[in-house]
Specification:
Elements lengths: L2 H16 L1 E2 L17 E12 L14 H12 L29 H5 L2 E3 L2 E3 L1 H11 L7 E3 L15 E9 L8 E12 H22 L3 E15 L3 H7 L9 E4 L14 E4 L15
Parallel strand pairs: 7-8
Antiparallel strand pairs: 1-2, 2-8, 3-4, 5-6, 6-7, 9-10
Bound molecules: 5,10-methenyl-6,7,8-trihydrofolic acid and ligand LAUPNLSC.
Length: about 280
């Protein structure tokens, strides 16, 4: 039984049983037909995933791992904010006529900043620190940039990664852990999608720094199920999970900028049938 499924089921039960409804509140998102998209929400959810034990892919329904990796490469490697550089259509509703989502995600990670060591963007700063000063407690990114929020079509949801290295007794390699901070989470559309993509990111960064990927701690402020998703979630969590798949990276890649989705190796990913045409609140 996949550990990620158990975490997901417990989180959904907690939101449904102990969450509060936003119905009647002034909410921002709408459904495609223009009606308000209300949620049941739980404040302050924290989930831990140990990548040394299992890759945290859901088996209750299939997570599109290559598409999820493609999006994280779009943000962290291509540092793009244009949907023309993305192979899926998940961002189409938030792009302008030129394909831009504004100064969000990849745009922010591509901005160069002045450091004592020279000009670097946030991704190169992380790679530099992990290679030169791995025990630093200052290795983190942040794309929630207030001065640019007015030029973002959607404010970043998963907005910060804090990397932290531990030296485990008896292990040759250092362990790379991370905390993903997320202000808002659409559980059905994107919880496992986000968990898997940031796990892959952690694996990629660990590999190019010659470390082992350890724990991903996912901190979610507003963790919600949209009203139209509740019956789907109830059906999903009634399913019996399969064992977790094996997910690896091509071990030959040593440069973060050389990874492609072809380097993701997925084996034995047995899942329940996909839920088709999930409505996405805009
Ligand atoms: N309401 C809302 N929820 C989100 O999850 C979300 C947004 N808005 N806005 C921006 C991005 C876009 N995201 C999305 C949007 C759609 C899927 C989605 O439809 N996923 C499909 C698989 C897609 C594929 O195969 O490429 C799925 O079945 O989960 C995932 C993430 C995450 N974000
Ligand atoms: O990576 C992502 C991006 C977006 N989401 C969800 C979370 C919310 O349901 C919406 C954003 O709406 P806000 O009103 O800006 O919070 O998108 C996600 O779960 N993961």
């Amino acid at each position: 039984m996949s550990l990620a499924d158990v975490t997901f089921i417990n989180m959904c039960r907690d939101v449904i049983e102990n969450g509060t409804s936003t119905e009647g509140e002034k909410v921002r998102p709408v459904w495609e037909d223009g009606t308000s998209a209300y949620t049941i929400k739980r404040f302050g959810v924290v989930n831990r995933y140990d990548l040394r034990k299992e890759f945290p892919a859901l088996t209750l329904r299939r997570t599109a791992l290559k598409s999820a990796m493609d999006e994280i490469l779009w943000i962290w490697q291509k540092k793009s904010n244009n949907i023309k550089d993305l192979h899926s259509h998940i961002w189409d509703s938030w792009a302008d006529e030129n394909g831009s989502i504004g100064k969000a995600y990849g745009y922010q990670l591509g901005v160069k900043h002045q450091y004592k060591e020279g000009m670097m963007d946030q991704v190169d700063r992380v790679l530099y620190d992990l290679k030169n000063n791995p025990y630093s407690r200052r290795i983190m990114t942040n794309i929630y940039v207030h001065q640019d929020l007015h030029e973002m079509n959607l404010y970043p949801c998963a907005y910060s990664m804090t990397f932290n290295v531990t030296k485990e007794p008896g292990k040759d390699k250092l362990t790379l852990n991370a905390i993903l901070n997320q202000r808002s989470q659409d559980i059905l559309a994107a919880n496992n999608w986000n968990v898997c993509q940031y796990s892959i990111l952690l694996m990629m960064i660990a590999q190019v720094c010659d470390m082992e990927a350890g724990e991903l701690v996912h901190v979610i402020a507003d963790c919600h199920i949209y009203d139209r998703h509740v019956p789907v979630i109830k059906e999903l969590i009634s399913r019996t999970p399969y064992p977790a798949p094996t997910v690896k990276l091509n071990p030959e890649i040593r440069d973060f900028y050389e990874f492609t989705t072809d380097d993701l190796i997925v084996e034995n990913y047995q899942t329940w049938p996909q839920i088709k045409n999930i409505p996405i609140a805009i």
